Protein: WbuC family cupin fold metalloprotein
Amino acid sequence: MSAELFDQSLLDQLSRAARANPRLRQNHNLHTSPDDPVQRFFNAIEPGSYVIPHRHLAADKAETLLMLRGRIGLILFDEQGQITATHVLAPTSACSGFHLRPGCWHSVIALESGSVFFETKAGPYLPLTAAERAPWAPAEGTAAAATFEADMRQAFI
Structure:
């Protein structure tokens, strides 16, 4: 039987990869296939990374996130795109993670460099559908997305 150990070196490597990635984030998957029944992975995210507000509609697609290092902001939205709640997540803070039920509009932003979290949700992996991407949020990779991400960041200042 073999074991994969998770040390600070792995998290450092993942953060370096996120900084080098144009999307400013990088996964380290523990599941072996997109078809696995449980998706488990580390996700490094850097300030400026735009995670389009989205929701998961399938009844079995609840999402759980636990901070390992750094700080991220969780943003919850209503159907019209108005922010309904914000939470700062950090490993040693009052709030170190979340569990979101399906249908909840949300996004995350990195509040400091080197932020890494562990995420799990039911598989198989399915790309977001049009109904799961917020119609009121700009598409990733656009100039408007950078402005939208900066606006989300203002909720934490």
